[in-house]
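Hey,
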Amino acid sequence: MKVTEPEDLKGLWAAIPTPWTRGGKFAPDTLERNIEKYAEIPMDGVYTTGSDGEFYAIEREEFEQLAKTFGRAMEKTEMGAAMGVTWSHTQGVIDRMKIALDHGVHAFHIAFPFWMPLAPGDVWRFWEDLASAVPEARWIHYNTPRGHRVFHGPDYARLAADFPEQFIGTKLPFNGLMEIVDCIESAPKVSHFMVEYTTVIGMMVGARGTYSYWANTLPHWTRRLTDLCWKKKWEEAMAMQKRLLVWENRHTKPLRDAGHLHGVIGKARGELSGFLEDTGCTRPPYYPVDEKLREEYQKAFKEYWKDEL
């Protein structure tokens, strides 16, 4: 389970949702059973408390319970493990890293604090504070615009030079090929990962894997796509990529148009196939997609992906 070097990061990593009971409490037994399902595929790694894991709705005490369950369950597998530790202030990030380390998790998805943009100098003080407080932690920078400051190639070159031990990976939610190449080429020793929309094109130019939400819906399909990229079978992989993009544009877009994002859409996606066990509940004030829209989504899924079901 230990992830401490860039070479430990590769392949297909699933973004596991945080399961809640219908009463709104964390459901540890469900999380453990879902990790067992991942191991049967298998995934190369699993990370929790990212956007699909509703990190923004989990307080410190509950994070500790989740880390304990996650670390224990992942220790029984051969999959890599990481946790998201993004928070609204530096101490919150540090506290979460220390908690996760106590339970055997060494790699962390980190976005910049999301309420206010950091001043340029504060960006680098943020990383310095993390390295000083928790030097054994390993960072995977989640380069999301929701952190207000998007990193580009020169930023990653500096981060890799200043923190060669801590900085091991990125999550690049970019659509532009030039942006992707810029980041990968500027920090070539770091393990760069794509998201669903650009898995194939990113791996064609040097990315080492994908952080995946679709693995929670069609895990074997997503495993096949990632493996095709490793084998450099680009034509077949790109056909699969296009199919997913068309699906998202036609059928997931209405959920976004209704104002839903992140963990809420993640729960709706997970419900489509029932691969993972879940109540479908999300943390208020972010409520699940309404029933009518979910029914339409499910109907479209059964028709569009019928050959995979």
